[in-house]
Amino acid sequence: MRSALCSSILASALLPGVSALPLAHHDGDSCYVVVTTHYVTVDPVPTHTSSDETPYPLPTVIHSTSVPPDSETPYPIPTPDPDDTPYPLPTVTHSTETSIPPYPTDHPTDPTDVPTDESTSEPVPEPTPTPTPEPATCRPAWDNTGKAPSTGPLRAALIFVDFPDSPADQFGQSTEDLYAPLKSQPADLYSQMSYGKLEFEIVPLLDQFYRMPNDSVSYGFADDDGMTGEEHGRYINDALAAVGDSFSFQGIDVLFIASPNGTEEINRSASYSNAVTAPDGSEFTAGNVITYGNDLYPEGEWQTVNHETGHAMGLPDLYPYSPGGNALFVGGFDMMGLVWGQSPDLFAWHKWRLNWIEDGDVNCVAENGVTTHRLSPIEVAGGTKAIAIPVNATGYVMAEVRSKQGANSEACDEGTGVLLYTTDSALGSGDGPVRVIDTKPETSGCGSEDNGALLNDAPLTDVGGEPFDTELGVKIRIVGQEGDDYIVEVEREV
Ligand SMILES: *[C@@H]1O[C@H](CO)[C@@H](O)[C@H](O)[C@H]1NC(C)=O
Ligand SMILES: *[C@@H]1O[C@H](CO)[C@@H](O)[C@H](O)[C@H]1NC(C)=O
Ligand SMILES: *[C@@H]1O[C@H](CO)[C@@H](O)[C@H](O)[C@H]1NC(C)=O
Ligand SMILES: *[C@@H]1O[C@H](CO)[C@@H](O)[C@H](O)[C@H]1NC(C)=O
């Protein structure tokens, strides 16, 4: 099946309240689509809203809509539409992260780190010291309230269910068979992407498929008019009731529920937008219960686990919830856009939010002028991982280096270099909170259209070339390259 057909399947999957996950994935004759559900709300509208991205800068009263105290120009904080909010905060939440370290006053740019001579094709100018930013202007105060932990252990229980109309023995499957691809691959990928900081562990209940009380069709996953929150909630409660209190969910952060491979009616994966209480009394906050459908099982699709768990840790969807194609905003960069993109490692912006990258790994350019920076690829630990250039109260121009290492080993050549993008912390899932800047808009890129071709060659690669003008008051020029590192000059005139 060719991409055109996959595109049409994708388009047909965009039902009200449901948006297709990035991408039609080709596997022989099939075209697989993952879908994340965001409900047209069935529960009372929350008294406050939670977008995936917390409006910057976060007031001390978390859900206040007051104007950011530090901004010279008061940008009104948009009130997120609850319909667009996949995970309304439950009324009771517990914080997993409490404090955000202040931005260091001694700036991480170390002039002695910058090469001055050999192995650089272009002469590298002396680095200029980066101005010390005001603490509040650099890092958004991301709100991790109720989110799954992103460093240290993150434990996900995995329950397999089956149905009267789709019993697992009909397919001759065992829970071990279905668990096999999930056993180490998602954990290894997280370990790699987080530089060893996230210890992801799936705790599977392998003793049986827990039998659901109703037929698979009754839960509405494949309904033409979309699954409702009520249906999804019933599915989760039925699964938990089937397990009963025989299992203690103490110490479990996230709950996964998976159906047999081949249960056609459960044809999408979705995370639940309300809090859930297990029979043993354990609480799962909104977004931390994820149900997996048939889309989990084709060869290589296990990365769906990393995408969905990314939401549990607070990351937004980077593909549009409105038409335009799943690759519209970020092409094949970051698996919160396209799960199977050519360069699927998370943006430095996301790694920063998850505390895989710390403030000291980011150069902040909060003052106008020309500064020089040395960037090392995001796929490997060490060095400076990003340049963050605030351009307004919520917006940033970001720069990072993509290479073909680690999680991006399958990247196309054109997908490497200095990747520029904007972020807007006022925008959440589906609204384009991150947008890649295509420095080569005239070229057709690399990879298939579904896999983000046009944007896949977005990175800047021209060493010693003209400054690239982002037209946001920021110009970027590559002045040198040493090994995997790029020496980058930033001209800020905001
Ligand atoms: C689910 O099964 C129970 C028990 O057979 C039945 O009473 C109920 O109506 C069913 N619900 C749906 C939505 O099919
Ligand atoms: C699930 O199946 C229904 C019914 O065949 C179909 O309309 C829908 O597009 C499918 N969803 C996905 C994501 O494949
Ligand atoms: C699920 O079923 C498909 C089709 O039979 C098969 O190709 C795939 O390997 C199965 N996946 C798992 C994890 O068993
Ligand atoms: C701030 O910058 C971001 C990123 O370029 C942009 O999306 C947003 O519209 C800007 N906001 C305002 C109020 O200009």
From TrEMBL:
One of its GO terms (biological process) is proteolysis. One of its GO terms (molecular function) is metallopeptidase activity. InterPro entries: Peptidase_M6-like_domain. Residues 75-89, 124-134 have a biased composition (Pro residues). The keyword Protease applies. Residues 44-140 are annotated as: Disordered. This is M6 metalloprotease. It comes from Trematosphaeria pertusa.
